[in-house]
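can u do me a favor
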């Protein structure tokens, strides 16, 4: 008997009762290796004593102060730390309580920016098909996942979508990587021109696409070309690092690898490491200035923004992430994971692609490797993989996405950064067994 409206009402969920390191224990005494950090959240694993202590110390001082009355040491320290670690040009932080809230705030910040600088006619948001930016109305509208949007379509604000950067399926055989990136940038530019260049607010994209595609990085040079297109038309570039940020791909900010300066970046998930619900929008001096020299007010705000205990937890998480050797460990473990998956699954007729960066890896499952045909959605392969993996003591994050109208299946792996080589090997073994049993 439950009084909770769970995500899936039919599912009988085990009760999580303990978490230590990379393991979660349930009430039946089973232990699972947390191969996905939940949904790419638990970047430091479970039971981190330093983060717990930072939260306790903050609670002893003050647990909550409303941001219309006070700022706090915890929130100020977190903001300073994030700005120090961010790529140049991200100078300010707007703390929120999660990923969808960060995206909502970024979209509204982008819109208000243009109002502040006297371009109130700008009203269009462009994103990419096959993206996920959250579940609230604005973030859902930005996202391009047809299945998630379908029943809410009538109440979503209008947004526009262009092709994702998805080399495995969309790069043509006669096309170089540069040609492919140029084609996608031209598609974005054509859409901006069609909508009216002075009517477009922002282009939103995940540097490495997570939930809807399974750890798909863009091809080299793609984001630089996108930045050029945005600059030509005065369009803001919002990068959504809610899933791929905070060290997940082997650098604290995923966009550092792309060599571009975004105007706004959203972060969450790994920011609180699962210890507290927290997210943030990082913004450039230019946007901050428009507010400071304009109305002096970002017309937005939720009760729990800048929550001191969440900020204290995140400040400690980010301090740990920035210690020497941490990102190198993520990169080394990520490479071990990729080569383990290649060796165990590379020959499978049902594994089309294994990709990703750092400890953010995706496996695309297909009915037929040769023509890349997805499985029949009725077989719910992703759900079967999840069940088989849990039966083997592994938590992974399989999703049934929509590949340009066709449903497909992939599995996302995003283990905690404290993972050790033998645990990586366990994930690979258990996942290979689960995929073999499910397909
Ligand atoms: N943006 C991206 C890229 C995400 O992956 C997610 C969640 O998976 C969100 C936004 C929404 O974050 P939250 O679930 O914390 O609201």
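np, heres the sequence
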């Amino acid at each position: 008997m439950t009084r909770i409206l769970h995500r899936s009402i039919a599912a009988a969920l085990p009760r999580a009762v303990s978490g230590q390191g990379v393991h979660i224990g349930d009430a039946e005494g089973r232990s699972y290796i947390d191969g996905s950090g939940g949904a790419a959240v638990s970047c430091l694993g479970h039971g981190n004593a330093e983060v717990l202590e930072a939260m306790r110390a903050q609670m002893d001082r003050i647990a909550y102060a409303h941001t219309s009355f006070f700022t706090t040491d915890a929130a100020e320290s977190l903001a300073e730390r994030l700005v120090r670690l961010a790529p140049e040009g991200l100078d300010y932080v707007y703390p929120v309580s999660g990923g969808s809230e960060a995206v909502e705030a970024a979209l509204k910040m982008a819109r208000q920016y243009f109002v502040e600088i006297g371009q109130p006619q700008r009203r269009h948001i462009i994103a990419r098909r096959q993206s996920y930016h959250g579940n609230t109305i604005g973030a859902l509208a930005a996202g391009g996942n047809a299945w998630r949007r379908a029943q809410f379509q009538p109440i979503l604000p209008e947004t526009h979508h262009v092709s994702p950067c998805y080399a495995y399926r969309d790069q043509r055989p006669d096309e170089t990587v540069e040609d492919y990136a140029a084609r996608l940038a031209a598609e974005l530019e054509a859409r901006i021109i069609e909508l009216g260049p002075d009517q477009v607010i922002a282009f939103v994209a995940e540097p490495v696409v997570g939930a809807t595609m399974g750890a798909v990085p863009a091809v080299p040079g793609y984001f630089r070309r996108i930045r050029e297109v945005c600059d030509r038309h005065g369009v803001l570039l919002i990068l959504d690092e809610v899933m791929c940020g905070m060290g997940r791909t082997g650098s604290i900010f995923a966009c550092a690898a792309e060599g571009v300066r975004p105007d706004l970046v959203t972060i969450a998930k790994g920011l609180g490491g699962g210890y507290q619900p927290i997210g943030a929008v990082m913004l450039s001096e230019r946007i901050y200035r428009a507010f400071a020299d304009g109305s002096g007010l970002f017309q937005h705000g939720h009760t729990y923004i800048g929550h001191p205990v969440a900020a204290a937890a995140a400040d400690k998480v980010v301090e740990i992430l920035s210690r020497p050797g941490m990102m190198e460990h993520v990169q080394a473990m990520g490479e071990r994971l990729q080569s383990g998956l290649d060796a165990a699954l590379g020959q499978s007729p049902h594994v089309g692609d294994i990709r990703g960066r750092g400890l953010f890896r995706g496996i695309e499952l297909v009915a037929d490797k040769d023509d890349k045909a997805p499985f029949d959605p009725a077989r719910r392969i992703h759900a079967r993989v999840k069940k088989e993996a849990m039966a083997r003591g592994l938590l992974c994050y399989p999703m049934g996405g929509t590949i340009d109208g066709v449903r497909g299946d992939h599995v996302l792996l995003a283990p905690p950064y404290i993972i050790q080589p033998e645990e990586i090997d366990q994930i690979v073994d258990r996942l290979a067994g689960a995929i073999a049993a499910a397909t």
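The first strand starts at residue 16 and ends at 20. hope that helps!!
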